[in-house]
Design brief:
Length: about 300
């Protein structure tokens, strides 16, 4: 992350003129603060911390929303129509009218005004599934996810610490009576289906919130539509620029992903001709920020 940047033609701003005027709503939070710092690394860029009034939104080229859902909708509706919006909240991820964007997997449509980026647990799983479908199409995903306390936000993390959180189900909304899946678990499946363009993908997740500060991880079991030799899967994972494959046990710790912008993948094991298991981990702050910047049309040089 050397601070050199270039415009991506497949992003919201494309080859926009400089200086670029960016706003960050939620700049005081864990994610927003780091996003603001990353934007400040760019030359010739005005970075504005956005409050809750429409006056703050005047003349912005880009608006990043790192706030709760209700505030994200309010600010998106108040922003000028010429402002391009990258929404990191969960407000619009499943709305048909708002594209769910993951660079390299589901690009931003031309002319889009507001786009959403995936949940910070969905993103690394989606990068892995996208890589392996070069070998065979994923049909079913079973996983236990271990999600860092920082995913709760600054206040939520403080409350978790005060309560002595060690590891507890990350439930969200009430469970579906037919499946027993809680809101957070249902959302993982719904977002993966949408961002990968696999509407029939079956997902079974147990989401667990853990005490460590940064780093989401998952023990992932994937079933594919056709036989997938483990050698071919390993080659596909290694070929992805979004993934970092690690063979040494000392490199598997979640702490090792901190401040990294790729997904750690390890322990790939066959469970049959079309079933395999692996371990993944990613920084739940650095990776979503990288995704948001690329979605906007900015990429580090």
């Amino acid at each position: 992350m050397d601070g050199k940047w270039a415009f991506r033609e497949d992003g919201l701003v494309g080859a926009a003129s400089l200086p670029l005027r960016c706003g960050v709503a939620g700049a005081g939070g864990l994610l927003g603060r780091r996003l603001t710092a990353r934007l400040a690394e760019r030359g010739r860029t005005e970075v504005r911390r956005i409050g809750r009034t429409a006056a703050d939104l005047t003349d912005l080229d880009l608006l990043f929303l790192a706030v709760p859902a209700a505030a994200a909708d309010e600010l998106a509706n108040a922003a000028p129509q010429t402002t391009r919006i990258v929404d990191l909240s969960d407000a619009a991820r499943l709305r048909p009218e708002v594209p769910l964007v993951l660079p390299g997997v589901a690009p931003a449509p031309r002319g889009a005004r507001r786009v959403a980026t995936p949940d910070c647990m969905v993103t690394p799983i989606a990068f892995v599934l996208d890589a392996i479908r070069a070998v065979a199409t994923p049909e079913r995903v079973l996983a236990t996810t271990l999600q860092a306390a920082s995913g709760l936000g600054r206040r939520g993390m403080a409350a978790a610490r005060a309560a002595g959180l060690t590891a507890t189900p990350a439930c969200g909304e009430a469970p579906d009576p037919s499946t027993g899946d809680w809101g957070q678990e249902r959302a993982l499946t719904a977002e993966l289906r949408r961002v990968l363009g696999l509407p029939e993908l079956v997902g079974h997740f147990t989401a667990v919130r853990c005490a460590h500060e940064v780093g989401h991880a998952a023990d992932l079991v994937v079933e594919t539509a056709a036989p997938a030799p483990v050698e071919d899967l390993a080659a596909a994972l290694a070929a992805s620029p979004r993934l970092r494959c690690a063979s040494r046990p000392e490199a598997w710790d979640v702490a090792g992903v901190r401040d990294r912008e790729e997904v750690l993948v390890a322990r790939l094991r066959p469970l049959g001709d079309s079933r395999f298991r692996l371990w993944l981990a990613a920084d739940n702050l650095a990776l979503p920020i990288r995704v948001a910047l690329e979605t906007a049309g900015l990429a580090a040089g």
